[in-house]
Design goal:
- The protein is an alpha/beta fold and 214 residues long.
- It has a single domain, classed as Vaccinia Virus protein VP39 (Rossmann fold, 3-Layer(aba) Sandwich), CATH 3.40.50.
- The chain is built from six helices and nine strands; from the N terminus they run ααββαβαβαββαβββ.
- The strands form two sheets. The protein has a seven-stranded mixed sheet. Strands 1-2 form a two-stranded antiparallel sheet.
- Helix 1 runs antiparallel to helix 2.
Length: 214
């Protein structure tokens, strides 16, 4: 997608090459990251750090995940073009941009009104138009379910049951699961109306997932 000036995507391309060297194999994920000006999703004072592989603070006391984590979560989803994807935790909007670049239909819920409004403007200014909602991530978006894939970008202590219900049969949900100190990246696959399989994919640290909205 075209981006307005003054963004130079050379650093984004270098970041994608770095992530490939760290083990990200999905070519579509790497290509998406190479096309997105991550500096647009952080405070101007942090723009010189935008392409480092590390998390950075954003508004409302939250963080933008490090690029490797974004890439790994996206890779685990195994996206197909046209998939209907629910993201819980819009945050800065960077993850939503990656999903949009991969040709899926994005629905994203953010509990903080400030982040919701800021992300919507950032994304629209860059030519991305996901369906954004200010709401409670634990509730999901039942009126738009089922979803082919669900991505959670904050850490719940238990898999939210209302979200598993909104995952279509054959769908995949990726989330950091566990307590406040450290979580296991977890892949949940819905194999039938009543049966789910889960696998773990390494330790990560995320902000806790909270109920309600602000």
């Amino acid at each position: 997608m075209p981006h307005p000036p003054p963004y130079n995507l050379e650093e984004a391309k270098m970041l994608a090459r770095e992530l490939k060297g760290k083990g990200i194999r999905d070519k579509a994920v790497l290509a998406a990251i190479a096309r997105i000006p991550r500096e647009a999703f952080v405070d101007e004072a942090l723009s010189d750090m935008a392409y480092l592989d590390r998390p950075l603070p954003i508004e409302a006391g939250q963080t933008i995940s490090q690029p490797y984590t974004v890439a790994r979560q996206t890779e685990l989803l195994r996206l197909d073009p046209g998939d209907k994807v629910l993201e819980i935790g819009t945050g800065s909007g960077y993850q939503a941009a990656v999903l949009c670049e991969m040709g899926v239909e994005v629905y994203s819920v953010e509990r903080y009104q400030e982040l919701y409004q800021t992300a919507q403007k950032r994304l629209n200014d860059l030519g991305y138009y996901p369906h954004l909602f200010h709401g409670d991530g634990y509730e999901g978006l039942p009126e738009h379910a089922p979803f082919d894939k669900i991505l959670i970008t904050a850490a719940p202590e238990m898999i939210p049951p209302k979200l598993t219900e909104q995952l279509g049969v054959g769908g995949r949900m990726v989330l950091p699961l566990g307590g406040r100190e450290r979580q296991q990246m977890t892949l949940l696959e819905r194999v039938s109306e009543t049966r789910y399989n889960t696998t773990e994919h390494g330790d990560y640290i995320f902000v806790p997932m909270q109920k309600g909205r602000e």
